[in-house]
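Pasting as-is:
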Amino acid sequence: MTISPPTRPESAIQRLIAILEPHGTPMEVIPRKRINWEYKEIPQFYIFKQGEISVLRATDGLVIATVSGQNLFGIAESIQPLRSHILRVETECTMLRLDASLAHEIITQEGMWKDIAVILAYYTTHLFYRDSEVVQQRTYSIIRGHLIEMNRLPEDSRLRTSVLDYIQERTHLSRSSILNVMFALKNGGYIDIKRGGYLLEVINLPEKF
């Protein structure tokens, strides 16, 4: 059974950005820069406005998710001290930061903790969705799910990262396993890939292969 990704809570995100952004400090970020949850040992909220950024598992660098839309980071991290993941900038980005304690005060004053709960529920559901794509799945099912995910990305994002690199960063599959499936799908006319292994189009992926 194919599970669709959760619906992004756009309204809640935009309402929170609107009240927090005037208090934020612009950041200078460059591609591949890693961002921690504290600035000068003070927990931060990060307001992500434009570009592309990934959430990585701190222990091994596994990519949990990549975000291109406006978003907020640091909500859960400012409440619970666990630091099991970090942020990595993928492209030129527009970001702001503000002390988490100030963000909490503003959210309380504006009565917007319900919006925070909605966003955290979305993040949690997204983790369940990701697990459904990779945990206890056959190799082909994992690759199929990531090809569908890639196909939803803008063309410039697809042509910046090869299918092999995209899937290897997000799973523990071997290079040979991924390449074998890719070549079989390409030869079968199920996907269109350009030289270098960049995905042009998912044509029609079978449920089983």
